[in-house]
UniProtKB/TrEMBL annotation:
This is Unnamed protein product. Pfam families: Trp_halogenase. Keywords: FAD, Flavoprotein, Monooxygenase, Oxidoreductase. GO terms for molecular function: monooxygenase activity. The keyword 4Fe-4S does not apply. Gene3D superfamilies: FAD/NAD(P)-binding domain. PANTHER family: FAD-BINDING DOMAIN-CONTAINING PROTEIN, FAD-BINDING PROTEIN. Belongs to the flavin-dependent halogenase family. InterPro entries: FAD/NAD-bd_sf, Flavin-dep_Halogenase_NPB, Flavin_halogenase.
Length: 451
């Protein structure tokens, strides 16, 4: 599932995401149910917990439920069409660095990478001036050279899911039809019900690894039977499965959150899961990856154009990625605390049955309330998954965050880091000091404006 910010990023990069409606389901909204008597979500939340993308930005403000492999393929082909030299079925094995007397950060200056072609085992070396590591969870720079990846002590979850046909639909016959639906299990995790392009639904359960192991140990049920029993802990979601049928075997995956102490050094950037990963409850992964990619391109162009030196450009990117990660980590951990503490008002004031005010804390105009929200969410009386040191790190990162509205391109262009704003003009991509930023250069033209 893609957050609606992806449409703005796609327009900014002139990628061919206009084809995605033919490969995916348009999402008019998202529904989240954290408690048995409360619904909530983010962006625009009404009294029924409905996240209405359309109301927030008009009839073309929908998002997509993309098939990830097809979406990645479109981006890859678009890069080649735009002039990038692309290689398929190639694995990068190592990076070569040269000492640089002018650089005192990182392992040196990266100059080349060795690779192996998976088809025939042929090897080779490719040289470069800059490297952007977008190698996914395996990582390369952060795991092999910087060695600064750290797994968080927060949720360590396992997901179990299958694909279903002939199920019901959320909001069938209403403007909310085909909205993805997420529901908290009774004190043990959450479940999803997501429509796909071929008429099937992805239906899954996410639980803490330890809790899932305990349930397995005391149960004599088969794997499929356990999965079906867990879905019953989300009664509203389970109701949509009446008359439905599983059409594929169960799949499992672990979702352990991690981050890194830095995401860049001179002539190198790290983007997406190669640097950090958060539990996918809010579908923030693609958003963070695309944001990281745009930041990498912006800061590299800034260094090439002389907007700032290499060290400053790398620091800007690293800070930008940290801010985005901290923002979503707070939301995700707070949501989990609410789901595992049904009687405690973690995400709402006492007596409220929705989270409108809680999520308003993340708007720029309500930023002063953010720390109160965070302290409330991580109150030791409710129970803590993080150490005091980790909590304080999150608080400090949030204090430094200048842009809390993560839903569109505006949030990227207005994020002041080290006195610099991104200049998102095609042909002039880079960084500019706040004093030198013209109002006309703060926004990336959309495809419509450009053509």
């Amino acid at each position: 599932m893609a957050l609606r910010s992806l449409r703005a990023y796609a327009a900014c990069g002139e990628s061919n995401y206009e084809l995605l409606p033919f490969l995916s389901v348009k999402l008019p909204s998202i529904i989240c149910r954290y408690l048995s008597n409360a619904l909530s979500s983010w962006w625009v939340v009404d009294q029924q917990g409905h996240t209405d993308f359309i109301a927030a930005g008009g009839p073309n403000h929908f998002s997509w439920n993309v098939i990830r492999s097809e979406a990645d393929e479109l981006l890859f082909r678009h890069a080649a069409h735009s002039g990038a030299k692309t290689f398929e079925a190639v694995k990068v094995n190592s990076v070569t660095f040269t000492p640089s007397p002018t650089l005192d950060t990182g392992p040196g200056r990266p100059v080349s990478a060795s690779y192996t072609q998976k088809s025939d085992g042929a090897t080779g070396v490719v040289g470069f001036k800059y490297i952007i590591d977008a190698s996914g969870r395996a990582g390369l720079l952060n795991t092999k050279y910087l060695k600064n990846r750290k797994y968080n002590q927060g949720p360590k979850n396992v997901a179990v899911w299958a694909y279903w046909k002939a199920t019901g639909k959320y909001g069938e016959g209403t403007p909310r039809e085909n909205s993805p639906y997420f529901e908290a299990l009774t004190g043990s995790g959450w479940a999803w019900f997501i429509p796909l392009h071929d008429g099937t639904h992805s239906v899954g359960v996410v639980m803490d690894q330890g809790m899932m192991s305990q349930k397995k140990a005391v149960s004599e049920l088969s794997t499929n039977a356990r999965y079906l029993s867990w879905l019953k802990l989300a009664p509203r979601l389970n109701g949509y499965l009446t008359g439905g049928k599983m059409v594929a075997d169960l799949k499992t995956a672990s979702d352990f959150s991690y981050d890194s102490s830095s995401y860049a050094f001179p002539y190198a950037r790290v983007a997406g899961d190669a640097g950090c990963f958060i539990d996918p409850f809010f579908s923030s992964g693609v958003h963070l990856a695309i944001t990281g990619g745009l930041s990498a391109a912006t800061t590299i162009c800034a260094a090439i154009r002389g907007d700032c030196d290499e060290v400053a450009a790398a620091r800007w990117h690293s800070t930008k990625v940290k801010e985005g990660y901290s923002h979503w980590l707070v939301i995700v951990l707070s949501a989990y605390k609410q789901m595992s503490n049904q009687a405690e008002p973690v995400l709402s004031d006492v007596g409220e049955d929705n989270f409108v005010r809680a999520f308003n804390f993340f708007k720029p105009t309500e930023f002063s309330h953010t720390l109160n929200f965070v302290h409330k969410a991580f109150d030791r009386k409710i129970g803590g998954d993080l150490t005091s040191e980790e909590e304080e790190k999150i608080y400090e990162d949030i204090r430094k965050t200048q842009s809390q509205n993560m839903s569109n391109i505006e949030s990227f262009t207005m994020d002041i880091i080290d006195g610099r704003l991104p200049r998102l003009l095609r042909g002039k991509l880079g960084l500019e000091s706040v004093a030198g930023m013209d109002e006309d250069t703060k926004h990336c033209p959309t495809a419509t404006q450009q053509h």
